Amino acid sequence: MTVPTASTAVAGSSTAGPGTAHAQFPAISVSHLNKSFRLPSEQYRTLKERALHPFRTSRSSVLHAVEDVSLEIGNGEFFGIVGRNGSGKSTLLKCLAGIYQIDGGTIEINGRLSPFIELGVGFNANLTARDNVMINAIMLGLSRKEAEQRFDSIVSFAELEDFMDLKLKNYSSGMQVRLAFSVAIQVHAEIVLIDEVLAVGDAAFQQKCFDEFMRMKAEGRTIVFVTHDMGAIERFCDRAMLMERGRIVRMGDPAEVTREYNQLNFRRDREDPQAAAGPDFQRILEAAPTAAILRAVFVDSVGGEPIVTANQGEPCTVRMDVRFHSDVHDPIFAIVLRNEAGHAVFAASTVVDPTPTGHFAAEQEVTVRIRFENWLGPGRYRLTASVARAGWGDDVVDRHEQSSIIVLAERPVGGDTDLPNTIEIERRGA
């Protein structure tokens, strides 16, 4: 297919079911894509300013959000995109979705596409949830009959059966997300674009999102996934891509991409931002002080594979990969788990171990595994892993904060922990 510059082409039937896209074509093909935004640096705020300064020159700067990006995503592939804030990953996704008009290059889409980018766009706060479901489903491409047929499934997935006649303005933000996501998954598309959807909602609903995306993958759908959760990238994605300043820095194995992302993210405050752009990460590594955490993730205690959920009452393991840049004696390895409110609920450190960690030479890499019995209450917990110089662990040389875990439990707890306990009741008298 020949596509003119600065245009988007969509191939394949919009009525085809999942997995029916033409196998001989990639699901998404992007060639030399460019997207820029003009940012005014001097504006008239009032009519008086315009009258007083009629000849003032309007100044502006250009932000190159996406520069010369080329990639192909195969049919049925789970493709992850990572990058720091402002790297261009969300802009790229919106270009693929047709939300932004591109400035140059080509995009070819082979199949029906459904974006999970801005959930709830089109919701009317003054209408009931019931009315919003019907309107939003039709906006996403369902006929009225299809929307009516799937209404019960939408409500059941959202678990909002008792609130459908309530006006949306009385919904919490979490309830609105549940409703919007439940409507969106009813669109049976071959290609799904996801932008940080898994970062919203409570832990139980996030797990339902994970399960739904895995079902889509099993059906052969193509999924493009933007997130800051490196554990999810390593667990779900077939390939991943790292972006920085609108350009592709690395593409390939998810573990390698997340490792490079962590290296880049650690250097953001220690190096000139202009010099940090580009793929020269060897220079960054050479300049890093003492040690750098390459990755820190939750892993399965049996197979060692990255995980994003854990069952309460079962052993849990954190894996930390560290590279030393200079000789270090008895470094301190530590982790802290924080709840959604940011409170530390669990910590482990080699400080309390009477056995010294030993000597580590420059350029040596080490894997540290910290295992603990998981008696945390149900919910999401964010991991902070750190390496510090010998002492009490307060002289930190690197810190990693990109991973999290969702703890699942069979019953509510009422607190951040569910420590093993016994309850004894003694009766006296009548």
> Segments where pLDDT lies below 50 for 5+ residues?
1-7, 10-22, 269-287
How are the strands ordered across the major sheet? 6-7-8-4-9-10
Structural class per helix/strand content? alpha/beta
Specify the CATH architecture of the largest domain.
Answer: 3-Layer(aba) Sandwich
Helical amount: 10-25%
How many separate domains make up the residues? 3
For the terminal residues, how far apart are their CA atoms? Answer: 88 Å
Tell me the major beta sheet. Answer: 6 strands, mixed
Strand content: 25-35%
Arithmetic mean of pLDDT: 81
CATH topology-level fold name of the largest domain:
Rossmann fold
CATH homologous superfamily classification of the largest domain: P-loop containing nucleotide triphosphate hydrolases
What is the general shape?
globular
CATH class of the largest domain: Alpha Beta
**Number of distinct helices:** 11
What radius of gyration results from the CA coordinates?
25 Å
Tell me the number of strands.
20
